[in-house]
């Protein structure tokens, strides 16, 4: 159970990290363009984040449950 929580935690944070990198690339592109555009922050709403608002909390709970079962 704890290992499942750890795997889920790594997957969710990896997806969030990839999204943040793509956001930075979009912002750099907008800064380099000649035209002024209004940019609004994008929301990560695909993958694990489409199922839950805070999937990383679910992974933390799974890890905690796995460790508490051992005690």
Feature tags:
72% helix, elongated, 71 residues
Structural summary, described in words:
The chain has 71 residues and is mainly α. Helices cover 72% and strands 0% of the residues. The chain contains 3 helices and no strands. The protein has helices spanning 2-32, 48-51, 55-70. Helix 1 packs antiparallel against helix 3. The radius of gyration is 17 Å and the shape is elongated. The relative contact order is 0.25.
Shape: elongated
Helix content: over 70%
Number of helices: 3
Share of β-strand residues? under 5%
**Poorly predicted segments:** none
Q: How many strands, what sense, and barrel or not for the largest sheet?
A: none
What is the string of helix and strand elements?
A: HHH
Mean pLDDT: 80
Distance between the termini: 14 Å
Structural class: mainly alpha
Please summarize what this structure is.
The chain is 72% helix and 0% strand.
Write the layout of secondary structure elements.
Elements: H1 2-32, H2 48-51, H3 55-70
Helix pairs in contact: 1-3
């Amino acid at each position: 159970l704890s290992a499942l929580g750890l795997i889920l935690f790594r997957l969710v944070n990896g997806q969030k990290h990839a999204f943040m990198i793509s956001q930075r690339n979009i912002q750099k592109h907008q800064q380099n363009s000649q035209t002024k555009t209004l940019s609004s922050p994008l929301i990560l709403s695909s993958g694990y984040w489409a199922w839950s608002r805070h999937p990383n909390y679910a992974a933390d709970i799974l890890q905690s449950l796995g460790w508490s079962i051992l005690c």
